[in-house]
Amino acid sequence: MTFWEIMEMSENIYTNIDSIFEGDPCGRRAANRDEDINEDSIIFQDSRDAAEDDDTCMGRPAANPSGSKSLGRRPSRAGDVCWGLLCVLLLAGIISLGFYRNTVMNSYKDNLTKEKNQLETSNNNLTTERDQLQTSYKNMTKKRNQLQVSYNKLPGPKGWTLFQSTWYYISSEVKSWDESRQDCNERGADLVIINSKEEQTFLTNLNKRIWIGLTDKDKEGTWKWVDGTPLTTSYWMGKNPDNKMEEDCAEISIGPVEGNWDDFSCATHLNRICEQKH
Questions:
Q1: Contact yes or no for 174/269 (Cβ under 8 A)
Q2: Is the dihedral of CA 229, 234, 239, 244 positive or negative?
Q3: CB-CB contact of 170 with 273 (8 Å)
Q4: 256 neighbors 243 (Cβ within 8 angstroms)
Q5: What per-residue confidence (pLDDT) applies to 3?
Q6: I need a labelling partner for 261 at 20 to 30 A (CA). Which of 17, 177, 207, 277 fits?
Q7: Quick one: the chain helix, strand, coil %, rounded to 5?
Q8: Rounded CA separation 247/245 (Å)
Q9: What sections of the sequence does the record tag as coiled-coil (predicted)?
């Protein structure tokens, strides 16, 4: 019962009492009886409302004979439970996704770190192998140079001279070009083939007229070395070769390094120089 209903009931009671006192004296007793009934009803209603408030505070459902309030609250509580469960499931899903993401990222990071370490190890191994090869190459080069020095100090055959790892035999007697080549072949060598300016200078410094392994016997004007290779670099003197009197063999004459070759008759007797390469 609301406050306004109580106030309206009180006004009706006072109105009835006044009408009774003005009219029927017997109505006064009836009014007093109705007043007592209404007061008892108010007290009972107040007591029930207070009890409901206490039960609500204590967490117990309040007594409701009609059951209208209880039936009205049940759907609301069911909705709250459903929303709570949805929130819990959503939170669990977010946590699971975060955990899965961290797991995947950590696995990917570990794989990258492992591959990087493997590449660094391979690079270090290759660098070590390269350094070892460089050290071995330097050691072998050093040993080769030492052996070359030792070899150069060895006494050669009698009459032979060593120049740039090549042995040269300078004859003391004179022969024709063909005889000179035959003599060189018997010594395990051949008439000299000039391959460099240094070798040309070495032979010029001997200050002798000597046969070299150059001829155009096979085809006039086509000069070849005794190993069959064509002439590419030459040191001819003046307008030579001029092919006077069937001059098909070449000699080194006394003169400047840049031009002291001369074509001469192969039958002429000159000194010879044999070359033995290793």
A1: yes
A2: negative
A3: yes
A4: no
A5: 46
A6: 277
A7: 55, 15, 30
A8: 6
A9: 105-150
Q: With a cut of 50, which residues of the chain have pLDDT below it?
A: 3-4, 6, 14, 17, 20-21, 23-31, 37, 44, 50-51, 53-72
Type and span of the H or E element at 210 = strand 210-215
> Residues 272, 164: one domain?
yes
pLDDT at 153: 66
Q: List strand residue ranges (DSSP E) for 131-268, in order.
A: 160-163, 166-170, 190-191, 210-215, 224-225, 249-252, 261-264
**DSSP-assigned letter for residue 172:** S
Domain count, the chain: 3
Give residue 2's pLDDT.
52
Q: What are phi and psi of 167, to 5 degrees?
A: -95, 135
The number of residues making up the chain comes to 278
- Answer whether residue 75 is part of any domain: no
Nearest-angstrom CA–CA distance, 192 and 176: 15
pLDDT tens, residue by residue, 191-212: 999 999 999 999 999 999 999 9
Q: Which long-range contacts (CB under 8 A, 24 or more apart) does 123-132 make?
A: none
Can you read off the two tokens belonging to residue 73?
């609250």
Q: What is the pLDDT of residue 240?
A: 84
Same domain, 142 and 171: no
CA distances, 190 to each of 80, 154, 271, 277, 278 (Å): 115, 22, 14, 9, 13
Q: Evaluate whether residue 12 is within a structural domain.
A: yes
pLDDT for the residue numbered 267: 93
How high is the pLDDT of residue 30?
43
Distance CA 14, CA 6 (A): 12
Q: Is residue 77 part of a domain?
A: no
Domain C-terminal end among 100, 125, 154: 154
